[in-house]
Automatic annotation (TrEMBL):
Residues 684-744 form the Glycoside hydrolase family 65 C-terminal domain. GO terms for biological process: carbohydrate metabolic process. Keywords: Hydrolase. Substrate binds at W353, D354, K587, Q588. This is Glycoside hydrolase family 65 protein. Residues 318-674 form the Glycoside hydrolase family 65 central catalytic domain. Residues 14-261 form the Glycoside hydrolase family 65 N-terminal domain. The active site is at E482 (proton donor). One of its GO terms (molecular function) is carbohydrate binding. The keyword Manganese does not apply. Belongs to the glycosyl hydrolase 65 family. InterPro entries: 6-hairpin_glycosidase_sf (IPR008928), 6hp_glycosidase-like_sf (IPR012341), Gal_mutarotase_sf_dom (IPR011013), GH65_N (IPR037018), Glyco_hydro_65_C (IPR005194), Glyco_hydro_65_M (IPR005195), Glyco_hydro_65_N (IPR005196), Malt_Pase/Glycosyl_Hdrlase (IPR017045).
């Protein structure tokens, strides 16, 4: 655990330039607007350790899969997000000497991420060669105009003699990823002028689309332009001012960013940049900022969670929501939510099963149904790729990828790529979750029924029938607990396979005759699926009364995490992989993930026995782990445990719990704060009959908490105080809910 920022309700702020933790500072001050995003890198060059990163939504590159031993079925390429042309770059000369915060003498440093308004502020005083200048930076990525990046820098002479300040502002295509596979540049400049760059990703051998990006810059400043330079990879302009003592100069940099995802040709890209630039040129800085802030105000008004009495918890919750909103807002069904969002290169910026399992429940509660529907359409539109993934394994139907940009699997670890097949069940569950929560069956009866049918065909071919046991089994898998590879009969995987087949059969009974005909499901197929449902093997231990994570799990030396010496944690940074695989320690919820998914289907006794057995074995070294454990702990009235796990999930990155935030935030696990609060502390459930219910409790160290929840055309406000819960219908038709199993009408 490492806390390098101050605790404040709406801000992530520090007054220290922490050179040893510069990458961590950059991660925690990342910005995004769903269309593009960036780490909290300085505008100017910094000669110390840093991880520069600017990323464009949906723009990626296929890098050749490199493995020591090729296996049939391996993906041809490993898809990765790529560092975009650096459009925020600005260097500064003070009396001819370059500003570098790593080596220069600075004071009064402030770095402030304003979460309420999604703006990054930075200020400091630098002393060089007898001159003293105060710098102030502001930066935001507009959510009112998604293609617009705005930076404003001012500099004040706070010394006692005149000082010359030069600003060299650039668009720089000389960028690369830190990843070792990227030892080459991946942008080829097509056009470069004084005011813009149009660049295309280099050719690839896999037939995947190349992307073109365009950046056009304009300036608002009283400084004098003294030079410009157009090179092969970089275009820059130099501005200058001579400041007398107490005099202030400023420069505003606006960049329009567009890509070939939205425009077909270079001419179209050029026209779009010029058109958007012309429109925004008519608007001053304050109005641009105000339009941006107004959108954020609407977001917070609908989804903010307020916690009274615990500023640590309040900051963590808002940081979670901020990370989600800066990554994905739901307007574009071609986009999804990468585990690092726009904050780093790790995980390749691709789509994982995290979206369906963890993000969809939150977006259902904080946004309109169209947002979640777009996430489901993303998968539907990539069904062709899922067919290919299954075919490469010699199987029928569709296997959705573990990691993807286009539906084709692009991850190069076998035990993850083709053993962690539970994601097919997670995607099926997301369709069910959307349908149950919204009451809207239009997706599941059309696009969803196609997805379910093809996933069921995969499961029916992937299982095998054990004649000896007279049951269906699934061998050679990895469950959600990635510290167990190539196991047989992972309980969670088998559970979801059985459930998917059962749910598909249910939906096939509801689709129209025309849709049923299009799906071309035979009676023999349906009978086979029902046989699997009836005879699926789910490991269970009678003596312990628990669902067994997989065959052989109980043969391990079962010792709790408390038995591990403190200096050996986290084990993924201290133990060999062999030792981890042989241990009983669980990376994240596995059996408990299944119980969380279907929480209404298990008795209190079953939930208690399984939680009491598995949670003490869980190291929570996946960022996705604490939240579901917090929900289950709350359900079991283990309130102190629920709060402790909430604190871990809400402040996972802010306090760097797993010592792995320096390379980017854990965006998909930022759902954890909302899940732990709303499903856990408030006990919110949506039951199969559509009933919305709550069983709230108030953590002892809090005075109160409140949140708003979108549900079936309504907005409901829930406030929990020491005196008890209060419920208010903010908008929409009257609704009956259940509170502590008693009906309550909201009007």
């Amino acid at each position: 655990m490492k806390r390098i920022f101050e605790v404040a309700p709406w801000n992530v702020v520090t007054h220290k330039l922490d050179k040893e933790n510069k990458r961590l500072q950059e991660s925690l001050t990342s910005l995004g607007n769903g269309y593009m995003g960036m780490r909290g890198n300085f505008e100017e060059d910094y000669s110390g350790d840093s991880l520069p990163g600017i990323y464009l939504a949906g723009v990626w590159y296929p890098d050749k899969t490199r493995v020591g031993w090729w296996k049939n079925g391996y993906p041809d390429y490993f898809g990765k997000v790529i560092n975009a042309v650096n459009f925020i770059k600005m260097n500064f000369l003070i009396d001819g000497s370059k500003l570098d915060l790593y080596t220069d003498k600075i004071s009064d440093f402030t770095l402030d991420l304003d979460m309420k308004n999604a703006k990054l502020n930075r200020s400091f005083v630098v002393e060089k060669d007898g001159s003293k200048v105060k710098f102030n930076f502001e930066r935001f990525l507009s959510v009112a105009q998604k293609e617009l990046s705005v930076q404003k820098v001012s500099f004040e002479n706070v010394g006692d003699k005149a000082v010359d300040v030069k600003v060299i502002s650039s668009l720089d295509a000389d960028v690369k990823n830190e990843d070792a596979n990227y030892d080459e540049h991946f942008w080829q400049v097509l056009e470069i002028t004084e005011d813009g760059i149009i660049a295309e990703t280099k050719p690839n051998d896999f037939g995947t689309p190349r992307f073109t990006s365009g950046m056009q810059v304009s300036y608002v400043t009283g400084l004098k332009e003294v030079d410009h330079e157009v090179g092969k990879l970089e275009t820059s302009k130099t501005f200058e001012i001579n400041l007398q003592p107490n005099e202030v100069g400023s420069l505003e940099k606006r960049v329009i960013v567009v890509t070939s995802r939205d425009y077909e040709s270079v001419d179209d890209i050029r026209d779009a940049m010029e058109g958007i630039s012309a429109r925004t040129a008519k608007v001053d800085y304050d109005d641009l900022l105000s339009a941006h802030e107004n959108v954020w105000a609407d977001r917070w008004n609908q989804s903010d969670i307020k916690i009274d009495g615990d500023t640590d918890a309040q900051q963590g919750m808002r940081f979670n929501l901020f990370g989600l909103f800066t990554t994905y807002s739901g307007e574009d069904s071609r986009l999804n939510i990468g585990p690092k969002g726009f904050t780093g290169e790790k995980y390749g910026g691709a789509t994982y099963w995290d979206t369906e399992a963890f993000c969809i429940p939150v977006y259902l509660g904080v946004s309109q149904p169209e947002v979640t529907r777009n996430l489901l359409m993303y998968r539907y539109n990539q069904l062709d790729g899922a067919y290919i993934n299954a075919q490469r394994q010699g199987l029928k139907g569709a296997l959705y990828p573990m990691v993807t940009f286009n539906g084709i699997e692009c991850h190069n670890e076998w035990e993850i790529t083709f053993e962690e097949i539970h994601r097919n069940g997670d995607i099926a569950f997301a369709i069910y979750n959307y349908t149950r929560y919204t009451g809207d069956k239009s997706f599941v009866l059309h696009e969803g029924s196609k997805m379910l049918t093809e996933m069921s065909r995969f499961w029916a071919d992937r299982v095998h029938y054990s004649k000896r046991n007279e049951q269906y089994m699934i061998h050679g898998v990895t469950g959600p607990d990635e510290y167990e590879n190539n196991v047989d009969n992972n309980w969670y995987t088998n559970l979801l396979a059985r459930w998917t087949l059962k749910y598909t059969l249910e939906i096939l009974g509801e689709v129209s005759k025309d849709q049923f005909a299009k799906l071309a499901v035979t009676k023999e197929e349906m009978a086979h699926w029902q046989d699997i449902v009836d005879k699926m093997y789910l490991p269970y231990d009678e003596d312990l009364g628990i669902f067994v994570q997989h065959d052989g799990f109980l043969d391990k030396d079962i010792e709790p995490v408390s038995a591990i010496p403190e200096d050996q944690l986290p084990i993924n940074q201290n133990w060999s992989w062999d030792k981890i695989l042989r241990s009983p320690y669980i990376k994240q919820g596995d059996v408990l993930q299944g119980i969380w998914d279907f929480i209404d289907d298990f008795s209190d006794r079953e939930k208690k026995r399984n939680f009491d057995f598995y949670e003490p074995l869980t190291v929570h070294e996946s960022s996705l782990s604490p939240a579901i454990h917090s929900v289950l702990a709350a359900d079991l009235h283990y309130e102190e445990k629920a709060v402790a796990l909430y604190e871990r999930t809400a402040r996972l990155d802010l306090d760097n719990y797993n010592n792995d935030t320096a390379d980017g935030l854990h965006i998909t696990s930022m759902t954890g704060g909302w899940l732990a609060m709303v499903q856990g502390f408030a006990g919110m459930r949506v039951h199969d009959d559509g009933t919305l219910s709550y069983k709230p409790f108030l953590p002892k160290k809090w005075n109160s908490y409140s949140f708003r929840q979108v549900f079936r055309g309504r907005v409901i406000e829930v406030t929990v105080k020491e005196a008890g819960p209060e419920f208010k219908l903010v908008s929409g038709d009257p609704l009956q809910i259940n509170v502590y199993d008693k009906p309550l009408m909201l009007k």
